[in-house]
Design brief:
By secondary structure, the chain is mainly beta. The chain has one helix and ten strands; from the N terminus they run H-E-E-E-E-E-E-E-E-E-E. The radius of gyration is 19 Å and the shape is globular. InterPro entries: Beta-barrel_OMP, OMP/PagP_B-barrel.
């Protein structure tokens, strides 16, 4: 089903893009600004009546300092909850994040352009027991952007090379450190950009 939905989105996007008749060249130029982001929600109900849900929203803003390079900032909020078969909460985590990023576009004035993104973020998580964790992450991911019209583009990023550190907010706690590297179908992220 996931492959069918992704295929349908790709076919619709390409068809829509080919139908666009404009006098301007799509793509990015110095001084362009854009907004993008992602929203996600999922819920799972198990045979034993336990259930879980996940929600996240991440708005982003970017500015092109020259034709090839954009800098930007993002905010993020996510919430994960779970209940056991008797309806008792077993997980209730809320995370707030703030971050900055830089992107280098290989073909900025073109309808289709690959890019590389370096990002740095800070996050704060609070769980059901009022425990708090502070985290720092840095990552690099490759992606592609395709303009559907002069102002709208779809983008996809694949894989990640990253490092993160999470430390409980308590005396004497030690940080948990993690290194990620991989290209996997679970690491494919899609988004929509509005350029202005």
């Amino acid at each position: 089903m996931k492959k069918f939905i992704l295929s349908a989105v790709a076919v619709f996007s390409l068809t829509f893009a080919q139908a666009q008749e404009t006098g301007e060249n799509p793509g990015f130029d110095t001084g362009d600004m854009f907004i993008s982001g992602s929203v996600g929600y999922s819920t799972t109900k198990n045979p034993d009546d336990s259930k879980s849900s996940n929600f996240n929203i991440i708005p982003r803003f970017g500015y092109f300092v020259n034709d090839f390079f954009a800098v930007g900032a993002q905010l993020g909020y996510s919430k994960n909850t779970a209940e056991d078969s008797r309806g008792r909460d077993t997980v209730d985590n809320s995370t707030f994040e703030v971050g900055v990023f830089g992107r280098y576009y290989l073909l900025p004035g073109k309808r289709f352009t690959p890019y590389g993104e370096l990002n740095l973020g800070y996050g704060h998580t609070k769980d059901i027991f009022d425990n708090k964790v502070n985290g720092l992450n840095i990552g690099f991911m490759p992606g592609v952007s395709y303009f559907l019209s002069n102002n709208f583009a779809i983008e996809a990023s694949v894989g990640i090379l990253g490092y993160s550190s999470a430390k409980p907010d308590s005396d004497g706690a030690e940080a948990t450190k993690r290194f990620d590297f991989g290209i996997d179908t679970n690491d494919i992220n899609f988004g929509l950009i509005y350029k202005f």
